[in-house]
Amino acid sequence: MYKILKRKVIAAKTVMLHVEAPAVAKSIQQGQFIMLKLNEYGERIPISISGWNREEGWLRIVIMGAGRTSNEILLMQEGDEFESLVGPLGTPSHVGKFDGTCVLLGGGYGAGAIIPVAQKLKELGNRVIGVVGARNKDLLVMHNELKEEVDALYITTNDGSEGIKGFVTNALSSIMEKENVAWVMGVGPVPMMKAIADMTRADKIPTYASLNAIMVDGTGMCGACRVTVGGETKFACIHGPDFNAHETNFEELMLRQGAYKEPEAIANEKFKDFDFSKI
Amino acid sequence: MADLKTKDRMKIKRTEMPLRDPEVRKHDFDEVPVGFTMEEAVLEASRCIDCGKPHCVEGCPVNINIPGFLKALEKGDMQSSINILMNTNQLPSICGRVCPQDQQCELVCIVGKKNKPVSIGNLERFVADYAMEHNLIPDFTPTEAMEVDQKIAIAGSGPAGLTVAAELRKLGYKVKIFEALHKPGGVLFYGIPRFRLPAQVIDNEINNLKKMGVEVELNALIGRTYTVDALFEEGYDAVMIGTGAGLPKMLGLPGENLKGVFAANEFLTRVNLMRADKFPEYITPVIVGKDVVIIGAGNTAMDAARTAMRFEPNSVTIVYRRSRDEAPARTEELLHAEQEGVKFLFLNNPVELIGDEEYNLKEMKVIKMELGEPDEGGRRRPIAIKGSEYNIKCDMMVSALGFGVNPLITSTTKGIDVNSWGAIVVDENGMTTKEGVFAAGDIITGGSTVIMAMGQAKTAAKGIDRYLKAKREVK
Ligand SMILES: Cc1cc2nc3c(=O)[nH]c(=O)nc-3n(C[C@H](O)[C@H](O)[C@H](O)COP(=O)(O)OP(=O)(O)OC[C@H]3O[C@@H](n4cnc5c(N)ncnc54)[C@H](O)[C@@H]3O)c2cc1C
Ligand SMILES: Cc1cc2nc3c(=O)[nH]c(=O)nc-3n(C[C@H](O)[C@H](O)[C@H](O)COP(=O)(O)OP(=O)(O)OC[C@H]3O[C@@H](n4cnc5c(N)ncnc54)[C@H](O)[C@@H]3O)c2cc1C
Ligand code: FES
């Protein structure tokens, strides 16, 4: 069993957890993820890692309530346990020492997911800029943690309640004007990752997106997580989750993410009118 | 019955396995064959003439002493019968249910030359189930004196991993299985449906192993959670890879990523492992279409077709590019599928998948095929008939075309050679090109059968024993 050692509500319907998983904590690298399952009846869902402690044997994760399983996790408390946690899954992010600035952009849980990538890029001697976006300032998460790891941090909010008003791409375009950007990675909602890819395409800046396809096993066995990159079918869980964003078919990814809308609503029935403000 | 003459034995009619009514069973996931009664089993066992040169034993990939266990059954000596069976086959209740007996032992049974062959598979199932129910399973737990101070790590809990675990634990080795999923059993659990192989049967076999002292760690992906080298560093003396084939092959056709297009493994895993048949009590969903098409005609295809049938669609159709004679599935599976109303479109091949504006699969374009000259494998090669394309209605398509090999372990471990299609290369002892690392099952063949995996696993177990003995002597 995999115990929650620490829990903190960090925004509306968002928690940060430290979960005990010594073996995974020992071997995980930047950009990899885990699959979590709550109990006998649970679904296996993919979750990124925003940090770890190899000595103490725990992983830091950020969960945003999106439906049945993530909502259940929001209600879990310190001491509660997950039935299953497997990882590290996926290929580590393709980092190196680049000839110019690296920009990491995170939206939603993605703001946490880019932290280990930022750490690794710094370790390799890069100049790293972080960008975190949210709809408004109350929904910003993990920006303070990210700030510790980067040379500069930009914040964007759609309503302008903090940082730059607009989207993460607004920050990206001003960074691209000021600096020689050599490497870009985005983790977050598909429209955000697509907008980033569109912005860096003309300058041919190597750009990666972490594709959040629907997964079942996460080990390459089922093919649920198929995505099209460069015209070829790939499995996001083993060939990815990071792919060349310029070659990614984001429209397909978005359509496939919606494949289970109806049953997902049925599964989430119990949380339809749930008041999450007091969690 | 023991005094029956051979001539009379040859005349006894084969007892066919009683099956549940197709109209009833196609609405649930309970096991389809009902099982023999003791009387039926003894009568059927008496059909074996205990011939001088039992071809069935050679026909069996692990050479079970078939006449031996049948004659003990005929005498009513159930303890001897199960002992003989389990002497060579650790998983008889599983093999009795899923082995292609029609292509192995029963194919060469001498009784089958004049009459129908002895129903060896069904009798294996009977003896194994009886033994389980009546606590006759022999205890292979090693005595304290037999305990050996050497540890083996096994990656994968499919038939290959389970067999190596049993064989080595019997000899006193410390054995630990690492399984990537949250349930053990491999394809037996996530691939083969419950109406063919009830969960209880698999659980029983795994509990037997645990009772012998085999440890199982779930949620452990070798190559990632622990690398092979990390296992050696942790003190394991040998590592055995039984991780199966893994990667499902896609069709490579336009439209293959439309919603409603599945690899068989995804569809079967959602139902068998995640229990989507019980949604929303179990919260993993599955959406089964109204007109379901399955591509392929092996066991996987039959399983996908019959599983889809249980969600009560309008139609389930198997599309296969060759004819019925070439279909690789067990004869019984084809029959059971037909009985349950699965339709077959032989000599047809998909060429395109067509979706609507929401990216949902709506139609499939197929082309008619004819059989040409035999290929290297001896099967007649299917050739497309030019201009014969037509569309069929279909809102769910499941491809059951076989598997590629998951490269996870070989790509994270130096020194394990693979062949041109990615399968791990082993020598006659089951050892890979990396010292102390052995492999068996679908990972060395790219996809085969339970019993072949077990046969290779026995070879690997012997190889590991020899290797570790030599290491002990050096010390
Ligand atoms: C590589 C990867 C990393 C991720 N990291 C995080 C993270 O760190 N924190 C976080 O909160 N979320 C993360 N997600 C998203 C998270 O997996 C989904 O939000 C979650 O599965 C939703 O399940 P649910 O039952 O709560 O909601 P549902 O109502 O079932 O689904 C809501 C939406 O989530 C998506 N989804 C549903 N089931 C799955 C599934 N099995 N696999 C993937 N997506 C699914 C679908 O697009 C769906 O429409 C990640 C996804 C991927 C692929
Ligand atoms: C749907 C279907 C129906 C079939 N029907 C029949 C039949 O009727 N009769 C028959 O004889 N054969 C049948 N087969 C074939 C048979 O199931 C396989 O040949 C057999 O299961 C192979 O055994 P294995 O132990 O090599 O691998 P598997 O059964 O594939 O088991 C491998 C296990 O290893 C785990 N694993 C994978 N990677 C790792 C890793 N890195 N670390 C740890 N664990 C890992 C997997 O999760 C899995 O549990 C069928 C196959 C399928 C897919
Ligand atoms: S989730 Fe099953 S193959 Fe990727």
Structure, explained:
The complex is a heterodimer of chains A (279) and B (475). Chain A starts with a strand and ends in a 12-residue tail after the last helix. Chain A has a seven-stranded mixed sheet with strand order 12-11-10-9-13-14-17, sandwiched between helices. In chain A, strands 5-6-2-1-7 form a five-stranded antiparallel sheet. A three-stranded antiparallel sheet of chain A has the order 4-3-8. With 279 residues, chain A is α/β, with parallel strands linked by helices. Chain A has two domains: 2-89, Beta Barrel (Elongation Factor Tu (Ef-tu), domain 3), CATH 2.40.30.10; 101-257, Rossmann fold (3-Layer(aba) Sandwich), CATH 3.40.50. Chain A has helices at 22-27, 68-75, 110-113, 115-123, 143-147, 168-178, 190-201, 250-257, 261-267, and strands at residues 2-11, 14-20, 33-37, 45-48, 51-53, 58-64, 81-82, 84-89, 101-107, 128-134, 152-157, 164-165, 181-187, 207-210, 226-229, 232-235, 242-244. In chain A, strand 5 and strand 6 form a beta hairpin. Chain B is of the alpha/beta class and 475 residues long. Chain B has helices spanning 6-11, 22-25, 38-45, 55-59, 66-75, 78-88, 92-98, 105-108, 111-114, 120-133, 159-170, 187-190, 199-211, 228-233, 264-272, 299-309, 331-339, 408-412, 442-445, 450-474; strands spanning 151-155, 174-178, 215-217, 238-241, 261-263, 291-295, 315-320, 343-346, 348-355, 361-374, 380-384, 390-393, 396-399, 437-439. In chain B, the strands form three sheets. In chain B, strands 3-2-1-4-14 form a five-stranded parallel sheet. In chain B, helix 7 runs antiparallel to helix 10 (120-133). The radius of gyration of chain B is 23 Å and the shape is globular. Chains A and B meet through helix 1, strand 8, strand 15, helix 8 and helix 9 of A and helix 15 of B. The complex binds flavin-adenine dinucleotide (2 copies) and FE2/S2 (inorganic) cluster (FES). One flavin-adenine dinucleotide is lined by residues 33, 43, 45-48, 61-64, 66-70, 109, 113, 212-215, 241, 257-258, 264, 268 of chain A.
